Automatic annotation (TrEMBL):
One of its GO terms (cellular component) is cytosol. It comes from Haloarcula salina. One of its GO terms (molecular function) is sequence-specific DNA binding. NCBIfam families: TranRegLrpA1_Halo. Residues 1-72 form the HTH asnC-type domain. This is Lrp/AsnC family transcriptional regulator. GO terms for biological process: response to amino acid.
Length: 142
């Protein structure tokens, strides 16, 4: 088996279960525990694995609203605006986008009103942000 397929199998197990032990990953990827340890360390050092997280169903969280927000930014203010967006605690994730908006942000707050305040007072008030288009998540289907 090639090293690329070994790497892919290990990553596939981690994507399914970020809490899997080295022993579980080794068994499911059909490699040894030292091989798993070596590949994971290499992938972390190379920045391929940037962290481990829990996959959360927003509907099951009491007192929390989540929106995916498409954000448009004036090109001359892009770098500064993205830095400032990363500093907003309610912005959980921030992505560049090739779609309808330059950036996509996952924004979380206690409720819909708080979420609207974050968008209005924190995101739209940033110098260079020209628009914010929220889509409120309602039900997780998968």
């Amino acid at each position: 088996m090639s090293s690329e397929s070994t790497e892919r199998r290990i990553l596939s197990v981690l994507e399914e279960d970020a809490q899997a032990s080295y022993a579980e990953i080794a068994e499911r990827a059909d490699v040894s525990k030292p091989t798993v340890r070596k590949y994971i360390q290499k992938l972390e050092e190379e920045g391929v694995i940037v962290g481990y997280s829990a996959d959360i169903d927003p509907k099951k969280l009491a007192g929390q609203s989540i929106a995916l927000v498409g954000i448009d930014v004036a090109s001359e203010r892009y770098v500064e605006a993205t830095r400032q967006l990363k500093d907003i605690p309610a912005v959980e994730e921030l992505y560049t986008s090739s779609g309808d908006h330059m950036l996509m942000a996952e924004v979380r707050a206690l409720d819909g009103d708080s979420l609207a305040e974050v968008i209005e007072d924190k995101i739209l008030s940033l110098d260079g942000v020209t628009a914010a288009h929220p889509s409120f998540l309602q039900e997780r289907l998968k």
